[in-house]
Amino acid sequence: MRPYNFSAGPAALPEPVLRQAAEEMLDWHGCGMGVMEMSHRGKEFISICEDAEHTLRELLAVPSNVRILFMQGGGLGENAIVPMNLSRGGAVDVVVTGSWSQKSLKEAGRYADARAAASNEASGHTELPAPATWALRDEAAYVHVCSNETIHGVEMHTLPDLAALGSRAPLVVDCSSHILSRPIDWSRVGLAFAGAQKNIGPAGLTLVFVRDDLLGHALPICPSAFDYSVVAANGSMYNTPPTYGIYMAGLVFHWVKAQGGVAEMDRRAAEKAALLYGYLDDNGGFYRNPVAPGARSRMNVPFFLADERLNEAFLTGAREAGLLQLKGHKSVGGMRASIYNAMPLSGVQALVNHLQDFARRHG
Amino acid sequence: MRPYNFSAGPAALPEPVLRQAAEEMLDWHGCGMGVMEMSHRGKEFISICEDAEHTLRELLAVPSNVRILFMQGGGLGENAIVPMNLSRGGAVDVVVTGSWSQKSLKEAGRYADARAAASNEASGHTELPAPATWALRDEAAYVHVCSNETIHGVEMHTLPDLAALGSRAPLVVDCSSHILSRPIDWSRVGLAFAGAQKNIGPAGLTLVFVRDDLLGHALPICPSAFDYSVVAANGSMYNTPPTYGIYMAGLVFHWVKAQGGVAEMDRRAAEKAALLYGYLDDNGGFYRNPVAPGARSRMNVPFFLADERLNEAFLTGAREAGLLQLKGHKSVGGMRASIYNAMPLSGVQALVNHLQDFARRHG
Fold it and tell me: A75 touching B, CB under 8 A?
């Protein structure tokens, strides 16, 4: 058995997906070429790409007026690409809930009058500011949220209803690190984006979901390769797309579907999170998670040992127990367990067993 | 035996590289993770990335004042990223030799006063304008050339010596489709870039070589993720790099090295090109290549049947003979054989055999 890999991203992939990719590496479906060797304009790759898009659309019930784009540049790229396409140089409201939305706010400032509509910085990014308290501007071109903060482990369990808050601005959602772990309420979303390397597949592929009516407003300085309307008009083939990443993502989409779809991923995420947070909240103070219960991420679980001098021993013991990449992000410290779709319940149980065992030996 | 794949890109990879990738898919060097599943900040991936850079630097004898960056966005992305980083909003001279440099000229116009210093358009992009005829401006921030035009099959066999032409501007070279097929004279280069999907590896990885003194001049609207100085300062890890592409590229670099390095690739390229052009020039007029002999690409060989009604029959017969992806680019028509490093001499010989056989049967 392979070790359990808790990396925050690039992250563990389902083993059957890796096995299939290995088997098809030299010859995809008898065509005599591996997927990496195919022209993106040939019928083989076009069928792979169309199938990936179709399966993703089905999994997330993406409505027909929302385009799916396969792009490059990751979340940090999108922090610039979104305002270049949507801001029209006007006002942009950003809800700051952790490192990622903070970076989005800063980068949007290059292209627009970007302001924090709310911030949880005072709490150390451990609570979610209530939407009713957000200072939204009437003239905002869009409102940006990060619906799962990978570093701080804060998740929006429902997307805000901007219309109910009196705003007519489209909502932009960075959902990189929890996409496909729960349904998305598209009636509340104008644009969503996700780097693939957390819950989908290899780094270097970015998924963008954009409502038709938001296309066509890019600033003149927006590079053609990152202009959503150019990418959409060319079916994500304006420039050569990250073909192998799209193929791997397609394999993951089929794996999710075979497991029971997003509804089943949602159920498993709830089960895994309940198990891990349950122990972190009830272990006699040896470990703690600092995030407010209603704001806790089901994907990224930062936690701390009360005695941080034990951190190295904890990580060493974890590795010996086959539990990999548990070290926390350098900006936060401590530990972090990322338990994406590809992490089975047995992996979370193994982690809890190690947590208990380590606490017993060192408590 | 696998068929011979003449795709212009994404293109054939060396079979031993694909075999190794398949073998390591679930577990890289016993670490318990596949390469796609590793944190880019972990020691395993950092060693992969450093090794790839080191091997590439060795293969191309890249001097220490030239940084190697692993980026995303491909050649079309660089068409915007280069002027955002280097133009300072001033003058940019572009030598137009085919589709790719024409696109570079157009895109640079978003950020700078971009002009064609020369153009081979009147010849149908079949000749190289002599450097002595280029209209270079004293104030140009840089001069852009595409040293191998993938679509038109035109290659610069030596890079221009701008200093000898009286210019002090740095030379920017798009060498996407012939990188690693010949040495690069770095004394003539300020910046070079290459999409990996032609002669190196998977689509979605872009290599940028940039001289130290050209860093730090990005326009304020340059996205952080595409600011060379930001990427350089973070060792290509400002955003999550396309980790699997870097790994595959590293395997290809080691394969090139094991074959005898760039000098051996250079020798083989000359041999393969001589064989194919030799036949295309001497077959009784059944086939022809339109490019001026001194400007012919050793990587991308467009050719035409005198009777274009035979095109479909030619492609069908080629597929049956195990010769794939020979259809020409839609903007040029006809056929195109891309014979990158991964294409053995035996593949070119098989193509020539098919050319002869088809001409005999249909001539």
Answer: yes
Which residue among A7, A22, A84 sits closest to B22, beta carbon to beta carbon?
Answer: A22
Q: How far is A359 from A353, CA to CA, in rounded Å?
A: 10
Distance from CA of B63 to the nearest CA of A (A): 28
The answer to whether the CB atoms of A19 and B9 lie below 8 A apart is no
CA atoms within 13 Å, Cβ hemisphere of A189: 26
The H or E element spanning position B107 is helix B99-108
From B28, B93, B134, B174, the catalytic residue = B174
| The one catalytic residue among A93, A134, A198, A272 | A198
Does the annotation mark B198 as catalytic?
A: yes
Q: Say what the pTM is.
A: 0.98
Each residue's pLDDT tens digit in chain B (363 positions)? 799 999 999 999 999 999 999 999 999 999 999 999 999 999 999 999 999 999 999 999 999 999 999 999 999 999 999 999 999 999 999 999 999 999 999 999 999 999 999 999 999 999 999 999 999 999 999 999 999 999 999 999 999 999 999 999 999 999 999 999 999 999 999 999 999 999 998 999 999 999 999 999 999 999 999 999 999 999 999 999 999 999 999 999 999 999 999 999 999 999 999 999 999 999 999 999 999 999 999 999 999 999 999 999 999 999 999 999 999 999 999 999 999 999 999 999 999 999 999 999 998
Whole-angstrom distance, CA of residue B80 vs CA of residue A226: 10
Cβ atoms of B296 and B153 within 8 Å: the answer is yes
Whether residues A32 and B3 touch (CB distance < 8 A) is answered with: yes
Would residue A100 show up in a list of annotated catalytic residues for this protein?
A: yes
Query: Which residue stretches of B238-344 are H helix?
Result: 243-259, 261-280, 311-320
B243 and B38 in contact (C-beta within 8 Å)? yes
Do B32 and A325 make contact, defined as CB atoms within 8 angstroms? no
Q: What six digits make up the tokens of B288? A: 């022809």
Considering only CA atoms, which of B74, B104, B99 is closest in space to residue B10? Answer: B74
Domains parsed from chain B with CATH numbers: 15-257 (3.40.640.10), 260-362 (3.90.1150.10)
